[in-house]
Amino acid sequence: MTVNTTHTLTRPERPAVIAGTKPRRGCAAGDAVLAYLRIQAHTLNTLESAVRADRFDSVHQMRVATRRLRAAFRTFGQIIPPGDSEHLTAELHWLGRELGQARDAEVLAAHLRESLQPTPPELLIGPVQARVQGYFAPRRAAARAALLEALDSPRYTRLLTELDRVTAGPARGPLAGAPARDVLPAAVRHAFGQAKRRMRRARHTPAGPARDAALHQVRKSARRARYAAEAAGLAEPGKQARRFARQMKKVQSVLGDQHDAVLARQAARDLGIGAHLAGENAFTYGLLQEREHQYAERRQAEARHVWRRAARPRHRRWMNTAAG
């Protein structure tokens, strides 16, 4: 699979504020959260044509928008009550899953090709590149066909309609009218607390698949805390919230690398089995599997250091000035 970089989409460090969405200084929590939701809804809508055209990175960006929306609904339940968002959150999960299947096949194929690049020619035994291509190409094609079918479905149209309705407001949760500077930091603190508990649990989980699964849960919690902080960054104290979001992004990134390596290790094993059954030498796939194992171990060790830096009190002090 060749990745087309001709039409690369630029991805900002934090969500851009579209015209008319930036909340005023000293705004209510409901105004800030609705502004964040409208930004993500706008992103979701504008990326659809790029996804249909198979533009580079568009699936990833659309998937991120769905995740940001889901994270906001889950984190700010006292602002947008579950009764208003529960069904929409489930539908966003469906859309994210469709996007994820297309994205994951693309990422894993690129990951394995990159892992093969430094391999000396004498260790590339058999049609390795062709087998990697043949393994992922039909998976990506099937995932893309399923994604386009989802985007053409009445279910997707209903999702967009419901999203427009909810983001139009008003926010009806019990804390929607309270000052954003009091409510949003407390919500971010709660999201960070979940990530902290999961990291502690992962550290005490025996090495192997169980720890890999535990670290994946840490990654999801760090991502949720990051997106919550991004939403808080639209209000006060914005600068501190955005700094914290960048710290959580670092945690999310290194754990994402670790998770990709775990999946690539399994794919290398499957490729090796397929090669063996076809009468080919499976040596290179064993080499690749071990390489991915070592890479996952390094990213796991790095994650502990990145987490310690991200969790420093100076990055979290702004959360404790709020009520709640």
3D architecture notes:
By secondary structure, the protein is mainly alpha-helical. The chain has one domain: CHAD domain (Alpha solenoid), CATH 1.40.20. It contains ten helices and no strands. The protein has helices at 29-52, 58-75, 82-116, 128-151, 154-167, 180-203, 209-232, 238-277, 283-310, 313-316. Helix 2 runs antiparallel to helix 3 (82-116) and helix 7 (209-232) packs antiparallel against helix 8 (238-277). The protein is globular and about 70 Å long. Mean pLDDT is 90; it is low at 1-15.
Count of runs of 4 or more consecutive helical residues: 10
Proportion of beta-strand residues: under 5%
Kindly state the percentage of residues in helix. over 70%
Number of strands: 0
| Relevant CATH superfamily | CHAD domain
Instruction: Characterize the largest beta sheet: strand count, sense, and whether it forms a barrel.
Output: none
Q: In angstroms, what is the radius of gyration? A: 21 Å
Give average pLDDT, whole number.
90
At the fold tier of CATH, the topology name is CHAD domain
Number of spatially distinct domains: 1
Shape: globular
Structural class: mainly alpha
Write the element-wise H/E pattern from the N-terminal end onward: HHHHHHHHHH
**How many angstroms does the end-to-end distance come to?**
50 Å
* Poorly predicted ranges: 1-15
CATH architecture: Alpha solenoid
CATH class: Mainly Alpha
